[in-house]
Amino acid sequence: MITYFYVDPKNVSKDFLRIEGEEAKHICLVLRKGEGEIIDVVDGEGMKYQVQVTAKGKDWVQGKIISQTRKENEPFTHLTLAQALIKGVRMDFLVEKVTEIGVSSIIPLITEKGLIKLDKDSKVISRVNRWKRIAISGMKQSLRSKLPEIQDPVSFQELLAKVKDYDLSLIACQAKGSKFLKEILEGKKGVKDVLLLVGPESGFTQEELDLSFKSGIIPVSLGPRRLRSETAGIVFSSLVLHELGDL
């Protein structure tokens, strides 16, 4: 079975790299990789390396770079998911799964009906750091080479100010006039930067929807059944990448 290991980009030089911490302990103590063995390593910035282990300690592994590949197993589409914050481990689950699917960036979204109202304090920093660790695990599991960016939580108004940076922005809702993805994405397989908005289970407020429509965000129906917020984020991301031929 193919296994990827993560290296901090700052520990990569022209011919060698050094893996440290828990990742190195896993290589040495759990998998018992020895000197001379070949391992696959990703840096989260789009590079995959084939590396021959040359030296190791209790919490570090050094290796010689044999070959390298750029953006292996990465989708052409840069998909950003703005996901309403969810309580507990459900947000952890979402981060892991959309990373595996191929999402490039995750924006935790604070909405009017959302159950979580966070200020930018140490608690937020702690949660973002946790999601980053989960994303690293998801990246390795799915054999990706690019680590999704986990952005700081933003308000709905702050997110709307970023809409202009995307080629296409879509919001999941049951509003009148919502379209199906197949209709929206037909003929758009070359689209590069796509933004998806997913609200809490109670949905977006009418004011939030009105503001999103005025900003040019297209309403999308995910079907007649009401989904949990994390399920909607996973389904929405999967459907978009599928329709763009990028899943």
Question: What's the layout of helices and strands?
Answer:
Layout (H helix, E strand, L loop, with lengths): L3 E3 L9 E5 L1 H9 L7 E5 L4 E10 L3 E11 L7 E7 L4 H13 L3 E6 L11 H20 L7 E2 L3 E2 H5 L7 E5 L8 H5 L7 E6 L7 H9 L3 E3 L8 H15 L4
Parallel strand pairs: 1-3, 6-7, 6-11, 7-8, 7-9, 10-11, 10-12
Antiparallel strand pairs: 2-5, 3-4, 4-5
Structural class: alpha/beta
Rg:
20 Å
- Name of the CATH homologous superfamily of the largest domain: SPOUT methyltransferase, trefoil knot domain
Q: Kindly, what is the distance between the CA atoms of the first and last residues, rounded to a whole number of angstroms?
A: 22 Å
> Quaternary state, please?
single chain
- Which parts are unreliable, with pLDDT below 50 for 5 consecutive residues or more? none
CATH class of the largest domain: Alpha Beta
Largest sheet: 7 strands, parallel
Tally of separate domains: 2
The level of helicity is 25-40%
Overall pLDDT? 92
What do these coordinates show?
The mean pLDDT is 92. This protein has two domains: 4-70, Ribosomal Protein L25, Chain P (Beta Barrel), CATH 2.40.240; 78-243, 3-Layer(aba) Sandwich (Alpha/beta knot), CATH 3.40.1280.10. Helices cover 31% and strands 26% of the residues. Helix 2 runs parallel beside helix 3 (122-141) and helix 2 packs parallel to helix 7 (229-243). Strands 6, 7, 8, 9, 10, 11 and 12 form a seven-stranded parallel sheet that branches. The protein has helices spanning 22-30, 89-101, 122-141, 156-160, 181-185, 206-214, 229-243, and strands spanning 4-6, 16-20, 38-42, 47-56, 60-70, 78-84, 105-110, 149-150, 154-155, 168-172, 193-198, 218-220. It has seven helices and twelve strands. With 247 residues, the chain is of the alpha/beta class. It starts with a strand and ends with a helix. A hairpin with a 3-residue loop joins strand 4 and strand 5.
